[in-house]
Design brief:
The protein is α/β, with parallel strands linked by helices and about 525 residues long. Helices cover about 35% and strands about 20% of the residues. It contains 13 helices and 18 strands.
């Protein structure tokens, strides 16, 4: 055997031993061990090829027919090892050519742009059990991995690792946690009925954007009107809401407008959580000016307070009901009809991610939509059931439906309003936005963790800040391509398939036979 053949033979043997040892001692890395083992077979087969097995080598010449079978075995090993190497390599290096016109097997340009701007490691930890959902998530995450080496993912069975699920506050096997060194975000990738969501790309891309953002946005909470205290850890406080915003990479600060100050220029969102009295005229004017410049405002107003601000809300197409919404058919079991569980809007970016879930509003008043003198477009975010009612005697101790004074539902308890300040209505940075909710208890410490209250509060803030627009990634759908034929065309196509096509091979055979017969006669 030539020297090169001996060297490659020894290298192949070493690789074979290394691959076998890896499989035996390191089962967690079995994929790479198989790759080493297959490479060893490949190198060993190549070393055997270096021996002149084309019939000139004496040993192979003497082997006769057995030499032929030996060469066939080497070729088979070569093909097998090459197949293993290609499959293992393709499993770790995902590449896919999407030839569909709708991009059914590709990520959207928005997702690609977000991944291109992500420069810190991000991990997705999915807590799901359904095998079909696991496979769908694996395929989707492979598309993400093909565009960014900063993204890693892991799929965990929450029943097999309950401690890990509790550590990440995952209660149902439908959620995933996207995290980085900057923060953590939880998303639902399955419906409450364990079904795969078609909009998972927009959910995951939005989470990646949030945890990968290096420069946090700033949220100001207005003080001075009896609003909730951000440092209060009691049931009525807003400390958990502030902590949830900070976990989403928002800077949270308080704001006082009592001395005529303008809203800070770095304010991405301004929130008034539970005001008990009206804003002073100069405070209202400061907020008006803020909105005229494209500001974002959230007001959470409880019933039975002295906050009305009719003239302030009217230009934006909003109004408070100054009532109490009750619902005996869909309410929190521990609180009763005074805490209705509202239905969320399917289309709005602030509620679409949690559509199908419920939010409880303890002691809420209705919020009404009106025509806006400033051109704002309003949309209801959350509404009660049709059998709920608006209690006109809100201050009374005992409540019951009165057909003369009370109004049946459904009633909005949260409404959003937006106005584009430029011609490009799709640009979130050019819009002034308002969210008005007839309750602030739903985001207080006692209720933020119930149902999907915390998610609604965070998503509303994200929509106001312009962070929810990345959610607007429609799921790809196949393009409908069909050929419309008139009745005569369908008849021609039918007879062509039944009579013409079956006889074409027969006609071709007859033509070939006649041609050969003619050639023989000519010879």
């Amino acid at each position: 055997m030539p020297r090169t053949g001996r060297i490659t033979a020894w290298a192949g043997a070493i690789l074979l031993l290394g691959g076998a040892a890896g499989i035996w001692f390191g089962p967690a890395q079995v994929r790479w061990s198989l790759l080493v083992l297959a490479t060893g077979v490949l190198v060993l087969a190549f070393s055997l090829m270096l021996v002149r097995w084309n019939g000139n080598h004496p040993r192979l010449r003497a082997a006769g027919a057995s030499g032929f079978y030996w060469r066939s075995l080497v070729l088979a090993l070569l093909a097998l090892s090459g197949t293993v190497v290609v499959n293992v390599f393709s499993a770790d290096c995902y590449r896919r050519i999407d030839l569909t016109s709708a991009g059914l097997y590709s990520l959207s340009p928005k997702s690609a742009a977000v991944l291109g701007e992500t420069h810190i490691p991000i991990q997705l930890l999915a807590f799901i059990r359904d095998p079909a959902a696991v496979e769908s998530l694996h395929q989707l995450m492979q598309r993400y991995r093909s565009l960014s080496d900063q993204l890693e993912y892991r799929i965990v069975d929450p029943q097999q690792q309950p401690e890990l699920a509790r550590r990440y506050s995952v209660e149902t096997p439908t959620q995933a946690v996207v995290q980085s060194r900057l923060g953590r975000h939880k998303v639902d990738i399955l419906t409450p009925f364990q079904q795969w969501r078609n909009d998972n790309e927009q959910r995951i891309t939005s989470a990646i954007l949030k945890v990968g953002r290096l420069e946090p946005k700033k949220v100001y909470f207005v003080q001075g009107h009896g609003e909730r205290d951000l440092e209060d850890g009691s049931e009525e406080g807003f400390r958990l809401a502030a902590e949830a915003l900070r976990a989403q990479r928002y800077q949270v600060e308080t704001l006082s407008l009592a001395h005529g100050e303008a809203v800070p220029e770095d304010a991405d969102v301004v929130i008034s959580a539970g005001p008990q009295i009206d804003f002073q005229p100069r405070e209202a004017e400061a907020l008006h000016a803020y909105l005229r410049g494209g500001g974002r405002l959230m007001i959470l107003v409880d019933p039975l307070t002295d906050f009305s601000m009719i003239s302030f809300l009217a230009p934006y197409g909003l109004a408070l009901g100054h009532d109490l919404v009750l619902d005996e058919s869909a309410s929190d079991p521990g609180l009763g009809a005074i805490a209705p569980m509202a239905i969320l809007d399917r289309q709005h970016p602030s509620t679409r991610p949690i559509f199908g879930y419920r939010v409880v509003f303890p002691r809420a008043q209705s919020v009404q939509r009106r025509s806006s003198a400033l051109g704002y477009e309003t949309r209801g975010l959350s509404s009660t059931s049709p059998v709920s009612w608006s209690e006109s005697r809100a201050a009374a101790g005992v409540h019951s439906f009165d057909s003369e004074d009370d109004r049946r539902g459904p009633h909005f308890v949260a409404v959003a309003a937006a106005k584009s300040l430029t011609r490009d209505a799709s640009d979130p940075d050019s819009q002034a936005r308002i969210v008005l909710v007839g309750d602030s208890d739903f985001a207080a410490n006692a209720y933020l963790g119930r149902y999907r209250n915390g998610d609604l509060f965070l998503l509303a803030v994200q929509w106001l800040a312009g962070d929810a627009e990345v959610l607007d990634i429609p799921p790809p759908s196949p393009v409908d391509r069909h050929l419309d034929l008139p009745p005569g065309g369908l008849r021609v196509l039918r007879w062509t398939l039944l009579l013409v096509l079956p006889f074409l091979p027969l006609l071709a055979g007859l033509w070939t036979w006649r041609r050969r017969a003619a050639e023989e006669d000519a010879a």
